[in-house]
Write a structure and sequence with these properties.
- The strands form three sheets. The protein has a five-stranded antiparallel beta sheet, sandwiched between helices.
- It is an alpha+beta fold and 366 residues long.
Amino acid sequence: MSALQALIDQIYEAPFLPEKWDAVLNNLASSSGSASGTLMVFRDAAVIQHKTTDVARDYIEEFMNDGWQSSRRIQHYYARPCYGFVQAQQYFPEDVLRDASYAAMQTLGLESQLGAIIPMPGGELAAFAFNRWRDLGSHEAEAVDYLNHVHPHLARAAMIACRLGLSRAQTAVSTFEALGVPAAALTRTGRALASNKLLDSISDIVMPAAFGGLALASPAANKLFQQAIAHALTAPEGLVRSIPVQARTDQPALVVHVLPLFRAAADMLFGAEILVAVTCLKSSNFVPSPTVLMGLFDLTPSEARIAAALAAGKSLKEAAAGMGIGFGSARTYLAHIFSKTGTHQQSQLVALLKSAQPLAPPPKSS
């Protein structure tokens, strides 16, 4: 097994066994040339959960104990959403960057920071940050590329972790039902071991199939779904693990997520090796906007920017010009977006994206 595949296994195990986040963050820190790694979950601009490696633990815990309730960085993100992992020193204005956490980092001898802020379907924000020792200089482009390669896996794992509250899940499928998430646990061959009533309630969309399996009613979506099931425990390049299902007159658009379960996470679900969870895109929830395309559909940062521009009403030529790339490159990105979202025309893509509500800013303090 490659080191990358072992890391991906850890990422998908961590939502069910929160102590595994330590290994994930340490592994990501080491692989990106960083000294520390942190995962924080925000609701509005307040930290509600966190995990961190040893180097940063003392100062993070100090902030938690002192009631660190808000972050100007999160406020800046709401105003100017970013995509994927970015250099904090390039993304944040100086007055935002040099906050109390930055001063504490510098006291420890840390400087360059790579971070990603990922909106979650429940309204939370999952923020990953990796800090490097000052004497090593800034993170290289290769480190950014590496973290963006695993970004879709982190986004899916963070989504599950947020819904489970970063606490141990004894019976994930039942827990998901309590949280309002249709879900099923499958064997590696795709046979359903357990499903909750919410999944059963959309059986005309996620349907029983031969040999105890599951299928999607939409032929195009089902093709991607069956590929994801068949290869869930491997990591072939380009595999789509988040499958969009177009809205119908009686049903909003859905995204069906296929998550592999490894080691102890699989043991906890009595031999299940695949978890299927469904996100409903409807106005009554915080729902994905273009800023969460990377997590929903495994888009790269460039693909997400193209998709967001098209959803905003720009033409492909305008989107390309805005990104400073050629029209040919934009067409290539668009072809990848079509493949990953199960759409075939720009109008279909825009309709899918517009089924999501825009990212809502946090409420203003009185």
